[in-house]
Amino acid sequence: MMGLDFSFRFDRWFDALPASPRDVGRVVRCVLRTGPGMRATPERVEVAPGEGVRGDAWKTHELSEPGNEVALVNAHVIASLAGGDAAQTALSGDNLQVDLDLSEENLPPGTRLAIGDAVLVVSPTPHRPCEKFVHRFGATAAKRVARANRRGRRGRGVLCTVERGGSIAVGDEIRVRRGPAR
């Protein structure tokens, strides 16, 4: 017998979060993965093409590959999942916690994000909750973001490549550039 699908209830959770801007957002927190389960939250990070975030341990991780140099997560989503605990939000492993609509509709693959001196390009590689995410935030959190992902809302966030390196700081505007590269 097939079980009933009650995942629709997670839509209400997502809908109750504060709405994020679609065209001009901002960086809320920068995060460096400095070792297993260890995080630093500097006011500024440097990004470089082919490297991602300088000083971040991701580039040496077994799952690191082209298309996932920099990870962004919506600050309202991760704050909700972490119960508002700022130290816990950093454990998500995302380099930039942002107030920006990360949905597929708003940021299709190839969309450019101008942040500080840098330009990131939204990757077609999906960002999914991993085993560590489930361990740190719980099965319900993983189900919530997975449901949002299935609905095109990118609850787990978005992965990007670095087109132009530079400095990104907390408070920087994120300007969405749609259309072909200039």
Task: Give the gist of this structure.
By secondary structure, the protein is an alpha+beta fold.
- Summarize the helix and strand pattern as letters: HEEEEEEHHEEEHHEEE
Shape: globular
> Separation of termini?
54 Å
**C-alpha Rg, in Å?**
16 Å
User: For the report, how would you describe the main beta sheet?
Assistant: 7 strands, mixed, barrel
Mean pLDDT: 85
Strand order of the largest sheet: 1-7-6-10-9-8-12
Describe this structure in words.
The structure is a single chain. This protein has 182 residues and is α+β, with helices and mostly antiparallel strands. 21% of the residues lie in helices and 30% in strands. The protein has five helices and twelve strands. It has helices at 9-16, 75-81, 86-90, 131-137, 139-150; strands at 24-30, 32-35, 38-40, 44-48, 52-53, 70-74, 96-99, 112-115, 118-122, 158-164, 166-169, 173-177. Helix 1 (9-16) crosses helix 5 and helix 4 (131-137) packs across helix 5 (139-150). 36% of the residues are buried.
